[in-house]
Amino acid sequence: xxxxxxxxxxxxxxxxxxxxxxxxxxxxxxxxxxxxxxxxxxxxxxxxxxxxxxxxxxxxxxxxxxxxxxxxxxxxxxxxxxxxxxxxxxxxxxxxxxxxxxxxxxxxxxxxxxxxxxxxxxxxxxxxxxxxxxxxxxxxxxxxxxxxxxxxxxxxxxxxxxxxxxxxxxxxxxxxxxxxxxxxxxxxxxxxxxxxxxxxxxxxxxxxxxxxxxxxxxxxxxxxxxxxxxxxxxxxxxxxxxxxxxxx
Length: 248
What we know:
The protein is about 70% helix and about 0% strand. It is mainly alpha-helical.
């Protein structure tokens, strides 16, 4: 049953325990954050989930990068949405921390109180930056200049390796899913990342306004894409769900 599955996933084994427990912490927070966002947005906005959820996502991604060093280093991502036969790439695990770090910044930056008290006060404030900080300019305009510090997995590598990483039964579905993920990545880079930061930087997002609420909804969906999706891959790898379900 459900309780037995939770026990075996998170508590039964000593192996990778820190990764399991931090993952459980993330999933618990995620469920609570989504509930508050949907049914009591003001309470969500005043809760620590605004920053603690993405911070846990960053922590989980770093632990994963330090733990699963035995995974193959390959450009083919291997995660469940693009393959039903391939092993997850170590590059995918490591680069996940880059996106989780972006998500943490946007989530904090989007909140007026945290933007003033954390990003601008402790982010290397300089008088020549007109009340802003080095961290603010860096994450808003220059974050992708350091993208090369992380390894890269590529959707085109998954497509090129389709004969080996996709079963005949699910090949068409996985190919369509791979293209969908590729389009989503392009959309996420420019809209979920750059565009949101530009709006905040220019002062176009009203605190507790509808635009802020919608943008926080996008950040919660991004948390699903960045962290929950890796957990779903684990469920598929352990046989709890099938490849079609794992595409969700």
